[in-house]
From TrEMBL:
Domain Metallo-beta-lactamase, chain residue ranges per copy: 12-191
Source organism (scientific name): Salicibibacter halophilus
Lineage top rank: taxon: Bacteria
Keywords (A to Z) from UniProt: Hydrolase, Metal-binding, Zinc
Record PANTHER family: HYDROXYACYLGLUTATHIONE HYDROLASE GLOC
InterPro entries: MBL_Glyoxalase_II, Metallo-B-lactamas, RibonucZ/Hydroxyglut_hydro
Cofactor(s) it depends on: Zn(2+)
Gene Ontology MF: a single term: hydrolase activity
Pfam families found in the cross-reference section: Lactamase_B
Protein name, entry field: MBL fold metallo-hydrolase
Amino acid sequence: MNWKQAPLGPVQTNAYVLYNDEGEAVIFDPGGDGKAFEAALKKENIQPLAILLTHAHFDHIGAVDHIRDAFNIPVYIHQLEAHWLQDPSKNLSVNMTAEGITARSAEHVIEGEQSFTVGPFAFRVVETPGHSPGSISYYHEPTGTVFSGDVLFQSGIGRTDLPGADEATLLNSIHQKLLELPENTSVACGHGPTTTISAEMDGNPFLNGL
């Protein structure tokens, strides 16, 4: 198994494609550019099985319905943000376009921390609120990767000046959940380059007071 990063949408949010040798895949946070993303997946003979959302801010959901319909696949989201998909004020798109950005209801609502599988892909869901109330991270042990959305970045952390965000909660999520993962875990961030748990433990100024 392997994964690829695909910056999409108005602010180049990182979508991720986790795939196996047979071309089966799951998609994380398709934020926009639905037609181009669909074409790229089909060109690579990738067959998505599901869309997994780390949270429901507009820049992470812009191509959800396009990709869902193109491949006839379900969407997963945490229960605290399930209703944000249809609400431009909650997903913060109300000021982005005249209509806002919305998506239909998710087929699967995640309640609490759990392990689950999508086809051959097994994940451990970790609740990591702080950037948003329903932010979750998906730990994929076979590739040693956590798909963390906007919780932890290379030398940074997610924004906490947004509605429903809280800096103390976010830092607690990072310290108590993400930094407890193996130090060689790759962090597939929602924006910017990927990093590792060890790199952020050693050099992230928001975490160690450098």
